[in-house]
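Customer escalation, tier 2.

The customer says the design service returned an amino acid string that "doesn't look like it belongs to this structure." They asked us to rerun it and document both sides in this ticket. The original structure tokens are below, unchanged.
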């Protein structure tokens, strides 16, 4: 009888302990561009994701763009989306997701001394200045995307309006070299790694950059819903601490060779595809503290309103919450 009571007591204690032990948070995070978006290679090197498997388990999902991510956030199939200065306000205005909060700034276009999206014309062609684009065909990856807003803003500053003065067509980034070379478009967005192809370098000339059109642009922002943040704050802090550790590793010049090897291994491309630009000043700026330039974000919202892509004035500050990344950063000091 005594043995039975003891066994029963041990069983009860085991059940209580099991109930009290929380499982790691399954954290579903989106990315779009392999390697450029660090979620894709966050755990590629030992020693960076120190909390992985303990307080959280990372699951990464690649999306072609922002629209699908907004839907996944709405249905609860995604926890952290990678949006940008064009898609965040659309999610707020069109999808009514006023509970979205931008918690991390991952990549920024146009930071002085770093890369900004380029817009190219034929080096030996007739277009020498922005005004020469009147009556021409412009290519973009998607209407309303970041590069699309950048080019429209630049042309508007020079007195050119869509449909009245120029035509816009859509094409995937990998086809831009052919579009320009075959004269199907007079101006194309020209971004890495496509801008670095020897054939593109041979035929193209940069007419202006996205920074020339709109200034700083928050191209990659990590966004989550307030309910998810509140319910999982402790695990998110651990995750963001690991994220900051990854940013600082990959952007350290001393680690560039190893970072290139990781990128090559992940994408199955040769190291030469990355070694001249990845995680250098020829790449987008990545804030080592994961901060968002809220003033710049507001300015890009205003540009979109001016161009007719937004119907209302949206206060960027209302939808930014940097408390998590700030707290995570303090752990690394």
């Amino acid at each position: 009888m005594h043995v039975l009571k003891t066994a029963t007591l041990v069983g009860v204690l085991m059940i209580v302990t099991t109930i009290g032990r929380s499982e790691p948070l399954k954290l579903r995070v989106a990315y779009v561009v392999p390697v450029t978006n660090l979620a894709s290679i966050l755990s590629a090197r030992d020693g960076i994701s120190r909390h992985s498997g303990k307080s959280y388990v990372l699951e990464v999902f690649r999306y072609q763009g922002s629209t699908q991510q907004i839907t996944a956030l709405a249905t609860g199939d995604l926890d952290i989306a990678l949006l940008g200065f064009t898609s965040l306000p659309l999610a707020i205005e069109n999808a009514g997701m006023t509970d979205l909060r931008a918690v991390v700034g991952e990549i920024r276009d146009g930071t002085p001394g770093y890369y900004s999206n380029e817009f190219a014309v034929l080096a030996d062609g007739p277009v020498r200045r922005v005004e020469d684009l009147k009556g021409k065909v412009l290519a973009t990856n998607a209407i309303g995307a970041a590069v699309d807003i950048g080019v429209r803003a630049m042309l508007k500053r020079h007195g050119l309006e869509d449909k009245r003065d120029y035509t816009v067509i859509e094409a995937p980034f990998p086809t831009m070299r052919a579009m320009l070379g075959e004269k199907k478009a007079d101006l194309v967005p020209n971004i890495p790694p496509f801008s670095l192809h020897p054939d593109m370098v041979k035929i193209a000339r940069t007419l202006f950059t996205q920074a020339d059109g709109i200034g700083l642009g928050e191209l990659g922002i990590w966004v989550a819903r307030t309910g998810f943040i509140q319910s999982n704050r402790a695990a998110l802090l651990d995750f963001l601490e690991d994220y900051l550790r990854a940013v600082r590793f990959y952007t350290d010049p001393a680690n560039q060779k190893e970072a290139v090897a990781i990128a090559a291994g992940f994408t199955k491309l040769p190291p030469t595809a990355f070694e001249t630009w990845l995680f250098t000043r020829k790449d987008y700026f990545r804030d080592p503290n994961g901060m968002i330039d809220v003033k710049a974000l507001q300015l890009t919202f205003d540009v979109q309103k001016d161009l007719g892509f937004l119907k209302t004035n949206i206060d960027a500050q209302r939808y930014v919450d940097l408390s998590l990344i700030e707290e995570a950063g303090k752990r690394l000091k």
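Tier 2 assessment: The sequence is consistent with the input. The longest helix spans residues 2-20. Strands lie at 25-31, 56-62, 81-83, 100-109, 118-122, 137-140, 167-170, 188-190, 204-209, 217-225. Sent an explanation to the customer and offered a walkthrough call.
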